[in-house]
Design goal:
Structural class: alpha/beta
Low-confidence stretches: 1-10
CATH topology of the largest domain: Aspartate Aminotransferase, domain 2
Strand content: 5-15%
Bound molecules: pyridoxal-5'-phosphate
Oligomer: single chain
């Protein structure tokens, strides 16, 4: 958007002309330090060291462990491989309890290595795994729990730790959304046996593709370092089964350059979040999820919950109308891992135990934010939503005519 406000009468659904001339996607990358990145790219080409634990990867790992106050950071080529390796290094087997309200990679990282993901319901308010439900899912085959800090809001790690201790379970956190956040005064990255970040292009901090495992466990860290590099310990010496999970130098250069501007991204995301929240507050049927400021969240996700009854429009109709305006709002993680293959065939009745998951995922939409979105964009998006809600009866008639 070039700052020029469109009139609300330009609504695509009525005039055939979208409010935004170009599509505004959810998950456009945060790009904040072009010069820093390009300078480092030149250094990489001068060094002729492109991958295999290069100087930028080493620096990236140090910067992250310093920021988080965690002993070990092992950078990887993406978050999914980081999850797979962490799960394997923790020797999880049999069954592992996870929320179904997550990106499919959390479940796949287990199933990929023949471990059964057992889907646990979430808390309707926090959207994270409900500790009260976890114990019911434990069987003699259960070896671990993978919690997900959904939308960057940390799980109830205290309750999860208690259950894990009682039943001798390993705990891993999928912290793909929660980089740089904290929980009760402790940085995310220090909970459970290990935590995994994703630095995918859509995430708060991106390295094009990338991820990392962080842990305070020395033995585990050594094993993970071996596993991500084919099990090599020095030249010509393989001592463990491994794979290729290495991060390359370009990715690390991108990560470091963005780390230099981390506070800038957080404060921009925070401004966007507050603008959305305050703007949408008074619209009946729409509520924006809240973040706890004390946890220094990264505010990367603008999550609305739509009340279909109050709106008289379904969540999916609402998304369609926004798409007509070139606002590519998204459903996220719908309809839940338990309703996707192969899990829906494995556990056709899993939904019976996941009422909150089904409810939450059917009313959530994600709105665009990040460095690619301006305050004017957000004003227009909010104005449009207000317009849609106040004209919902008429819109419903138009939609039902189709
Ligand atoms: C993005 C994401 C992943 C996977 O990370 P990649 O880097 O894309 O492989 C895993 N879990 C969650 C919750 C995610 O959002």
């Amino acid at each position: 958007m070039n700052g020029k406000k469109q009139k609300i009468s330009d609504l695509g659904i009525f005039s055939g002309k979208p409010a935004f001339p170009e599509k505004i996607h959810v998950g456009r990358p945060n790009i904040v330090n072009r010069k820093g990145f390009l300078d480092r790219v030149n250094t990489i080409l001068d060094n002729q060291w492109l991958t295999n634990n290069g100087p930028f990867v080493q620096e990236f790992e140090k910067r992250i462990s310093g920021l988080i106050g965690v002993k070990h950071c092992i950078a990887m080529c993406n978050g999914t491989i980081a999850l797979e390796i962490a799960i394997r290094a923790l020797e999880m087997t049999g069954e592992v309890i996870i929320p179904s309200a997550t990106f499919i990679a959390t479940a796949h990282a287990l199933q990929w290595q023949a471990i059964t993901p057992v889907f646990c319901d979430i808390d309707e308010k926090t959207h994270t795994i409900d500790p009260k439900q976890i114990e019911q899912m434990i069987t003699p085959r259960t070896t671990g729990i993978v919690g997900v800090h959904l939308w960057g809001r940390p799980c109830n790690t205290e309750a999860i730790q208690e259950i894990a201790q009682k039943h001798h379970l390993k705990v891993l956190y999928d912290a793909a959304h929660a980089f740089a956040a904290s929980h009760n005064g402790k940085m995310v990255g220090n909970f459970g046996d290990a935590e995994v970040f994703s630095f995918h292009a859509t995430k708060f901090l991106n390295t094009f593709e990338g991820g990392a495992v962080v842990t305070n466990n020395d033995v585990l860290a050594d094993r993970i370092r071996l596993m991500k590099n084919f099990g090599f310990k020095g030249y010509d010496n393989v001592i463990y089964i491994g794979t290729n999970g290495k991060m390359n130098e370009l990715s690390a250069a991108m990560g470091i350059s963005s780390l230099d501007k981390l506070e800038e991204i957080i404060s921009l995301n925070r401004d966007h979040y507050i603008q959305y929240r305050d703007n949408l507050k008074s619209i009946p049927g729409i509520s924006c999820i809240s973040y706890n400021e004390d946890n220094h969240p990264n505010y990367q996700y603008i999550i609305l919950e739509l009340d279909e009854q109050q709106l008289l429009l379904s969540r999916d109709q609402f998304v369609r109308i926004l798409h007509g305006e070139n606002i590519l709002a998204r459903r996220y993680f719908y309809p839940g891992c338990h309703r996707m293959e192969p899990y829906s065939s494995f556990f056709p009745h899993a939904g019976l135990l996941l009422p909150n998951t089904d409810k939450v995922l059917s009313r959530v939409i994600v709105l665009p934010t990040g460095t690619a979105v301006t305050h004017d964009d957000i004003d227009i998006i909010c104005e449009l939503m207000r317009y849609i809600v106040s004209h919902r009866k008429k819109i419903r008639e138009i939609l039902s005519d189709e």
